[in-house]
């Protein structure tokens, strides 16, 4: 089974940089368990991203809360992209406990990542893939990071759960951009996740079929950043009473690559 997992992950690497994993971790890499449970790794990453954002045009003030939401979004996108890509391509979903997920927690996205000693779960079709992915990754591993960010930085669960839906939708879209033949299966997986399990109620489809999340990642709070393409606020008129501005229309959406996520 480890060989099958390695082959599935190698296949996913052809879908793009967010879907590629390293064969072995470096010495300074941290485990997902350490990221979630230890006092140092997550705050260090949030500080790094906050400092980077503050070097943007006009040197804007950036709150820890905004930086933490964007860190959460980027980490989830990095985690789920190779797993979903491998499952769509091969029918085998790699799985690993959080202590065997390792990342180099510094630099730009996509962060280098390795899964050490992964196994696989056969997934026969989109419903099975969605159920297995929710049970093996979203609930125990993604959910732990969501709790950690919510607890430490007081980012609302609604925002963070929307981040998860956005990251999953982005990963699936990136896979289909590289391999259009995967689109029917990827769309069915997303619909299954949004209609049941951890992501129920966290997103939906616009009239044109594109994914839309039910919350905002908080990127709009950065001056001039605008809104992401899947944001629930994109295109709305903002009112002074709702905290989004004063009578302005939404700016042009930023692209996912502007916030360090796969294009979708």
What do the pLDDT scores average to? 88
Unreliable sequence segments: 237-264
Q: Please report which band the strand proportion falls in: under 5%, 5-15%, 15-25%, 25-35%, 35-45% or over 45%.
A: 5-15%
- Whole-number tally of structural domains: 1
Number of strands: 7
| Strand order within the widest beta sheet | 1-3-4
Distance between the termini: 31 Å
- What pattern of helices and strands is seen along the backbone? HEHHHEEEEHHHEE
Backbone CA Rg: 18 Å
**Overall outline:** globular
Based on secondary structure, the structural category is mainly alpha
> Number of helical runs?
7
Largest sheet: 3 strands, antiparallel
Helix content: 40-55%
Summarize this structure as a short list of keywords or feature phrases.
mainly alpha; 264 residues; disordered C terminus; 7 helices; single chain; 46% helix; globular
